[in-house]
Amino acid sequence: DKYLFKKPAADVIFGITSNFKYKNVDFSFAGRANLGNYVYNNVATDMGYIQRLYHPTNYLQNIHRSGLENNFLQQRNLTFSDYFVTDASFFRMDHITLGYSFDKLVGNYLRIYATVQNPFVITKYTGLDPELGNGIDNNVYPRTRTFLFGVSVDF
User: I need a labelling partner for 118 at 20 to 30 A (CA). Which of 28, 52, 132, 154 fits?
Assistant: First the structure.
């Protein structure tokens, strides 16, 4: 039977950002969190289906079998169940920057810095990315982690 079960929209959304400066060193970060949002892990569903395809030869051993082990109803070779609806609450650090400024070294101002974007995500969600707009994880590519090194000069 079809029924409403959980929701992809978060109950609580919040963010944090801060900048620190001590003498010539600066540090900044920004992060955000979604609490109480749920995701249908369609990747786990598909892995159970793939396991059924390759089971006779045991070709793939390291994939999710939970849907098959629980004997869920299958429609047109697909397994649907609220078993795969999981809590996707998360905290994501968007960026961290560390810099150092040299006064009057080259011109009027010289600053070197390093930034990492998407350094970490804290979540219990087992899929690739808990932040999904539609609430269905269809094995989209995860967000990349980017490292940036830079120099700012004022003359």
Answer: 154
